[in-house]
Amino acid sequence: MIRLTSQTTPASGVCTPLCDGVWWLRMPLPFELDHINLYVLQDSDGIFIIDTGLSSRKSKAIWQTCFEQFKQPLKGVIVTHMHPDHSGLAGWLCREFNVPLYMSALEYFAARSIFGPNPGADLSTDKRYFQRAGVDQSIIEQHVRPRDTYTEGVEPLPLAFHRLTQGQTLNIAGRSWQVMTFAGHSPEHVCLYNATDKLLIGGDQILPQISPNIGVYSQEPEANPLAHYFESLTALGDLPSDVLVLPSHNVPYTGVSFRAQQLREHHEAQLAALVSFCEEPQTLVACLPVMYKRELSGRHMFFAVAECLSHLNYLMYAGRLTRQITDAGVYVYQQTGLKS
């Protein structure tokens, strides 16, 4: 089983020690998942921060207060992955304090591409992505628009970065941190693992109480991220059970092997339900109630379409569903009867 840490959750905006040289900062978020956990690694001559929060005046003020608490210079910004709540303030922090950004290459370039301005871009592929899912045209118009500026909540990233790669070692705060990279939730998500003290800074890759979104998006509509996510669960599940996982949401916990198995079973149950539902041809939109029991709108619809598509693509590649396209340009999925 997993065991949540008995440590008191810090108040929003308060930096509190977790263990020698590792601090926990709870940053508020302005949506349903109302917080992100950020971490500070304290060296003798300065600090490194892990993830940044969204760009806002409030978040910037929290970081300023945090730095005053340490009375040490910021030495670098490490970003686990590109999503705005993790990378949104990276550009401001690096610019304001003249420090380097550390990211994996796929996360860095994906962030530059997806969240930056795209004036004059051909949006037909984005529209086709939603049309083939069977999404109503009015909803498509909400999500497919050109951008003249960076995505809200994301500062422009630095034009240079330090690349993090699988197996690399970072020596920070008297510890050797092994870089582990995984696909699934994002292209090349970075986790940091210290084997000596059994600490894993896990980002969003393996959360204690919710599953991270595993989505297929318009930039790569034929992707199979769920297969990659299952691979990451195998690797993380091989870590010692008493490793303390420091996640980006909820609270730190132990029992990573058990949690990896829980997450695998969760997704396998969704896959089985989709196969059963697709006895007759079904569109992606028709499949959404199989995975989501609540009404979907706005950003929830956007992420639900992406996650449902990741499961349908997985089943298609596994030979458990076939996919055809209708005269209206909508994909329909139907079970093949295979059990693999």
UniProtKB/TrEMBL annotation:
Gene3D superfamilies in UniProt: Ribonuclease Z/Hydroxyacylglutathione hydrolase-like, Winged helix-like DNA-binding domain superfamily/Winged helix DNA-binding domain
Annotated Metallo-beta-lactamase domain residues: 35-249
Domain of life: Bacteria
Protein name: Glyoxylase, beta-lactamase superfamily II
